[in-house]
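Hypothesis: this fold can be encoded by more than one sequence.
Test: take the structure tokens below, design a sequence, compare later.
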């Protein structure tokens, strides 16, 4: 049985875990990976031989000498591509998040087809390596994806008073100063073509020492133009994933998604929704922990299969300046939600690593005064749906 409580998130639903970080060098060899995060799987480096070696960042384990923290011309490939993570441990979670990030970036770059690759930016949380790290990967200027970001964060620390208060308000009995472990994978895809929807998804885990942990996560679509078949396909995909683990769980997650991604000032929802859950307890019983971990893994493994068929189908449609301008206006709404209402972003902006937090922002946006689409237009049709959540399955 999956224990579902209520909506609420200490983490960003679209970015990295909020924390204070300093850049760390990009990992360039298996031994360096072992030295910097020994719990992660071994990586082999496959370098694009057409690129001059002077453009690669280098790093020697234990050295404080820093060069570039970005690598845009190499691919980090897990030495073991297919691993089993059935038993839940923090180590297995970390390894799964890293493998999932690699697979998502590889598949997204292949689907994009432009030859663009994801830069690799590894950062450390503070001066003490024991506080954890993150990996931010970004691809920009593609053919399918104008901007794509896939983040992993593995952090440890002590709860601040404000975060402890927020979590206690959601029914989690935690105290300021308590030690915690947190891990997360998040992605945001902003497409080039206005007929392709924006895609956001994440999984995250949080545990306070001495207590049990809980998961959060979800996946949702933000279209600029409504294709009802696409939305039904997307929701049906996640209903099958959710209800496989608990009957009726999709309905709870959909309602939570509709409630969370709402822009009160506009009286409209950010997109056509999907699923969103938080405070999904792993409990103290090992079978329950493994069961919840299995659900979260299947959810993450479904991110690309749920989105890419829709993106590829709409990517071939022709569009003009009118559609592009509407896309930029809708991206403005997307950014409004992130900056005004997203709890994770608001937490992160208070002393967090700004590049990892704002990486979820669209590459270009527009605001125009009092834009009201004419009745009967495709733009107006979208707004009608965003003002009142629909049943899609």
């Amino acid at each position: 049985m999956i224990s579902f409580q209520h909506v609420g998130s200490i983490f960003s639903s679209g970015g990295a875990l909020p924390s204070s970080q300093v850049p760390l060098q990009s990992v360039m060899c298996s031994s360096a990976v072992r030295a910097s995060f020994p719990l992660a799987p071994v990586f082999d480096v496959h370098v694009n031989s057409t690129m001059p070696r002077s453009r690669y960042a280098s790093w020697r384990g234990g050295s404080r000498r820093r060069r570039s923290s970005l690598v845009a011309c190499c691919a980090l490939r897990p030495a073991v591509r297919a691993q089993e993570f059935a038993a839940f441990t923090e180590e297995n979670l970390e390894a799964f998040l890293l493998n999932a990030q690699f697979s998502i970036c590889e598949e997204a770059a292949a689907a994009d087809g432009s030859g663009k690759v994801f830069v690799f930016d590894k950062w450390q949380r503070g001066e003490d390596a024991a506080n954890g790290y993150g990996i931010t990967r970004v691809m920009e200027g593609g053919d399918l994806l104008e901007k794509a970001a896939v983040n992993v964060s593995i952090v440890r620390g002590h709860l601040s008073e404000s975060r402890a208060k927020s979590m206690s308000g959601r029914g989690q009995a935690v105290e300021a100063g308590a030690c915690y472990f947190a891990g997360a994978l998040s992605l945001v895809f902003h497409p080039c073509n206005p007929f392709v929807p924006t895609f956001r998804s994440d999984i995250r885990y949080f545990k306070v020492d001495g207590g049990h942990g809980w998961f959060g996560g979800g996946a949702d679509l933000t279209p600029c133009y409504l294709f009802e078949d696409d939305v039904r396909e997307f929701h049906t995909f996640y209903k099958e994933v959710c209800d496989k683990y608990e009957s009726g769980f999709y309905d709870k997650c959909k309602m939570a998604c509709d409630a969370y991604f709402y822009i009160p000032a506009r009286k409209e929802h950010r997109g056509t929704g999907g699923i969103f859950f938080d405070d999904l307890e792993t409990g103290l019983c090992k079978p329950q922990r493994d069961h919840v971990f299995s659900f979260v893994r299947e959810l993450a493994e479904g991110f690309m299969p749920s989105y890419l068929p829709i993106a590829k189908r709409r990517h071939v449609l022709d569009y003009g300046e009118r559609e592009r301008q509407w896309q930029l206006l809708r991206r403005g709404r997307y950014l409004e939600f992130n900056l005004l209402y997203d709890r994770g972003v608001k937490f992160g902006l208070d002393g967090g690593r700004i590049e990892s937090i704002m990486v979820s922002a669209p590459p270009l946006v527009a605001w125009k005064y009092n834009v009201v689409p004419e009745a009967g237009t495709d733009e107006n049709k979208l707004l009608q749906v965003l003002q009142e959540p629909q049943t899609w399955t």
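The chain has one domain: 22-386. Confidence is low (pLDDT under 50) at residues 3-83.
Hypothesis status: open.
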